[in-house]
Amino acid sequence: MNSVATQQKRFVRITPSNNASAGFSPDSSQPIVRFSVADTMASADMENARVNFRLKVTTAGIQPVASANDFNIDQCVSGCAVFDQVIVSSRRYGNQIEAVHNLGRLNSSWYSSLYSPKQMAANVNLNCRSIGKGCYGLQQSLAGLGVVGTDPSHILQRKYLVTNGTATATGNSKQGWNQGTGVAAGSGSLMIAAPPASGSSGYLDFSVPLHLGFFQSSSVNLNQVGGLEIVLYLDQTRNLFFGTDVAATASYTITDVSLTIPLLYYNSQQIQAQTAQPESVLSFMYWTSIYSVLDSTFNSIAHRLALKGLLSAIHNMQPTVAINNTVYDNHALIDPGVEVLTFLRDGVKNPYEKSMIPTVNRAEGLANKACLNAEILNEYLSAYRNPRDINYTQVIPENLNGRNATKNGVFGLGQNYDPSAGAGISINGTISYDIQSKLEDITTPDPAGIEPYAFYSYYLSRQDYIVTPQGMSAV
Amino acid sequence: MYKPSENMPLNSFQVVSPCENQTDFRAGQIIRFVIPRSIGYWDPHTSRVQLEVRTENNNWKMAFAHSCGVASLIDMVRISQNGIVLSETTEYATLNNLFTLYSDSLSIKQRNAVQNGARDLVTEGLIGDGTVFPSAAPWEALKRQGTSSGVVLGENLNGQGPAGTMDNTSKKYQLEMRGIGLFELLNAIPSIAIGDILIELRLVNFNKQALMVHPASKIPHIAASAGAAPTVVLTPPFNGFTNLADSPFVVGMQLTTATANGAAVGGATPSLITAMAQDSATGIITLTCAGNLSGGTAGTTVLITQGNDGVNNLNDATAFIVSRASMLLQVVSPPQQYIEETAAKVAQDGLILDLNTYTTYRTSITQGISNVTCEIPAMMSRARGVLSVPRVNNQTGEFSNYNPTNQDKNNILGQYQQLLRYRTQIGELYYPNQPVQLDQMIKTDVCHFSAQHIVELEKCLQACKIPLRSLLSTKQNFVIPRVLAKYGASVNLEKGIRLYLEYNGNGTTAALDVVSYVNHVNRVMVGPNGLEVLS
After folding, report:
1. pLDDT digit string (tens) for B306-348?
2. In a domain, B252, yes or no
3. B335 contacts in A (CB within 8 Å)?
4. Quick check: B12 contacting A, CB < 8 Å?
5. Residue A265: what are its φ and ψ, rounded to 5°?
6. B95: helix, coil or strand?
7. Residue ranges per domain, chain A?
């Protein structure tokens, strides 16, 4: 008997357990989406799990977005940013496995660090409808950002929010390619030809991965973990969109929400082997998200942590005034003007026995700096993997300098504690950051002024659980 | 991205190991690093070199001359232990440039530009208002000397100094030691067993070999009120730079007005830039000049005509200085039990490291000869491939009346020169038995490539462990490949290699300097009696 044939791979499509016929919305409807994944005898490929939905955006009341509106969404995360918090827990045992807050900014770091502008426009676009930041060819070779409202790249990204069937006409390489045309609300078919009536609700489909640590495992034993309860909290509208045409009554709704997961069902021998084993160990990656504030040009941020397999950490920043403010891109990763950066562990320089000092002209404003901070940014990228092996990223000169740096931004800080083995180290103490920065006021803007910056930290670590019939306990 | 791993956790930290011999290094000098035995274990794949580089005496803003960025500075890399050479590669800039042009797609070049300061030439694409870049000299000639994507915008060697003056402070660049076997090993290196390792980087002999003028210096820039007033306004997006500090403009330079395709208008004396500013909110750059440009003759663009000392050409004394060199070493601390086991194993069985090595051989081709034989006296026993780069010979050494268009920039690209066919001979055996035909590449006005050449090139690069990701420079950086073994194997080159080249017509139009890199494995054996290298 061919043992391969006894295992079956299936894509399961799960609808929310709190399904709302009117869709989910942070303003007018249910803002939480819940999925329950049964504890079947199967292994789940969480890496390839996707949350699917269709997005309807309105500027004021039921008014759809037009391409001429200054109504924008971040070019890296786009539709991925609709989820602000995600909590994963075990259905059977009730243990919380992972909880990530400010997921949009984690996603923003993820996409801008690990995908090139061309990959964003070509590959990621098909999932998240994002066009990426930066140019990728001769025909787009002009560097620097124009005025946000009329900048071609923002208009191109905006096309994915235009769901009223209006043809778009601003020049760029995807001219006239209006993704939202003709998709009527609740039609059940993406191929429907008739455009919706004026002011109606054309939808655009998204299929986004979740970049939680737990979702980096390609074989999660659903029986051992006792099934999953996944709760997704929607982002606030004022945190998701920005531009002068984002009215106070602007909103969005996601409908036809589902979660698809590839499952590999166990064969009878595997099931027998599992049931014969009363105790098992499960390992997952997970993110710990912490929010802090840089409010002084000489600042020390300390995080007290107890993590068994700490691998790496990433941090990104933006002015606090920009949070939940529709004037600014809430998913931009802004350099506050770092001048000296030191990573410490229990008061000792670690994992780098140095202070990083960019060769930047401190007299100049952030929009007019030439320094590319290679020293800092290579360590930032090392949080994902060896920076030498990161070939594709949007952390590129064009996005780091000029107005792109203060409007769109792809800057971050990061460190890797175990780049050689990738297993993670045990830590039970304080990780701190001594940061000397300009904290330049980019929102006024006033190159001589300062303003506080939000400091979002995400620690990636490994967590082991022992599972017994009595429950699931962290090691 | 990381997944749950069963690997043994390795506590790891990065130390900065400064160079041993001096602080300021100039052209031709050698930077020496020592990786001491006492460091224990270190991870070479995550270690890299950091160079702080500045320029002096330049009247135009400068950038690294080649697509490989900061590697343009490096002529030779030698790794040794107690006098025994583990690997030595000369003409390293040419090798690194070859990796960049064949193994890096545009996206990878953009990513690497953050750390290596690589900067494209600006010879193609659009000028600010959508006008196609002028198709005229010297831009046409420059197209053959480098890529022009407009989006590889590494950090220049000069930013913006106080009040818009030339900034000659040091800039930090990081260098991945591509092609240097020791730094390509994926395992932790037990220095404790090998002993002190000496790493020597010799800088190129002439400043011109490493530097060029900011590529956007002599191209026309779209500007409002160009000529009609002493104030020139440039609105983003820009061509060839991202902001004022990144731009080629410096107070003291002189501007004139021009047409959209760069032809000068008006005949009056150019006007001196007296002040510069950039608006933080809009990104608009304002250049204030001493008077109306070109005597008030309006144009759609502005051109820089003189450097900040009022001289047209680059100052001959322009030089680079590596003001600080550091090795960023990733030190790992395995558990004590592992260290003891390794030490015992080395004492009993020895330690073997296979280093992927490039050894350089040079030969020259005289101008006007159509049939050429190049001898490559490589006798190593574990060879995998040969890459020959026929560079331009007889290039001037130092800057001398250097035109800021970069039309006379140092050229380390392989020259095609109407090569009709090539093949190699090892001992008595010709391989391939029929020469590789390049007929399709002969035509000068079209971009046809020889499929046979590309197949041979890909085979050779793969054998040398170089991922092939871009064929854009197949003709621009012409490389003659010879694969020696496949599937990770190697051959014994006990009889040397001969390279037969047949040029079209009357032969080469210029003398060539053929630099051949033989990729081979150097086996380093560490035993109780010391270290031995089998090449």
Report:
1. 999 999 999 999 999 999 999 999 999 888 888 888 888 888 8
2. no
3. none
4. yes
5. -75, 140
6. helix
7. 3-278, 281-467
Residue B292 within a domain:
no
Q: What is the dihedral of CA B345, B347, B348, B352, to 10 degrees?
A: 70
Closest residue in A to B123 (Cα) is A138
* Confidence at B21, pLDDT banded by 50, 70, 90: confident
B245 within a domain of the structure (yes/no): no
Q: pLDDT for A114-150, tens place per residue?
A: 999 999 988 898 889 899 998 887 655 566 676 777 7
Q: Which two tokens stand for residue A23?
A: 């869709």
Question: Which chain B residues are Cβ-neighbours of A124 within 8 angstroms?
Answer: none
- Closest-CA residue of A relative to B164 is A364
What's the pTM value of the predicted model, to 2 decimals?
Answer: 0.92
Of B1, B148, B160, the CB nearest to A370: B160
Scanning B223-282 for CB atoms below 8 A from A yields: 235-246, 278, 280-282
B394: DSSP letter: S
CA proximity to B294, closest of B268, B274, B263, B312: B268
- Domain ranges, residue B467: 11-213+318-534
B259–chain A nearest CA distance, Å: 19
**Contact between A139 and B126 using a beta-carbon 8 Å cutoff:** yes
User: b/e map of B202-225 (b: 16 or more CB within 10 Å)?
Assistant: bbbebbbbbbbbbbbbbbbbbbee
**Cα nearest neighbour of B159 on chain A:** A370
CA of A381 vs chain B CAs: smallest distance (Å): 11
Nearest CA to CA, how far is A309 from chain B (Å)?
Answer: 8
Nearest to B7 among A218, A417, A421 (CB): A421
Interface pTM (ipTM) of the complex?
0.93
Chain A contact for B1 (CB, 8 A cutoff): yes
Q: What is the CATH number of the domain that holds B380?
A: 2.70.9.10
Which of B242, B247, B338 to probe the A interface (max A CBs under 10 A)?
A: B242
Q: Residue B135: how many CB atoms within 10 A of its CB?
A: 11
pLDDT-based confidence at residue A163 (cuts at 50, 70, 90): low
B390 falls in which pLDDT band (50, 70, 90)?
Answer: very high
8 Å CB contact of A420 and B244? no
CATH class of A281-467: mainly beta
Question: How many angstroms away from the CA of A359 is the closest CA of chain B?
Answer: 6
What is the domain count for chain B? 1
Per-residue confidence at A192, pLDDT binned at 50, 70, 90? very low
pLDDT digits (tens, 9 = 90+) for A333-376: 999 999 999 999 999 999 999 999 998 888 888 999 999 999 99
Name which of B497, B486, B518, B495 is nearest B423 in CA terms: B497
> Which residues from chain A sit within 8 angstroms of residue B155, using beta carbons?
370-372, 374, 397
pLDDT at A179: 43
What is the DSSP secondary structure assignment for residue B162, as one 8-state letter? G
Nearest residue of chain B to residue A148 (CA atoms):
B282
Query: Residue B233 falls within a domain, yes or no?
Result: no
SS3 B432: strand
Whether B242 sits inside 8 A of A143 (CB atoms) is: yes
| Interface contact A420-B10, CB threshold 8 A | yes
Class of domain A3-278: mainly beta
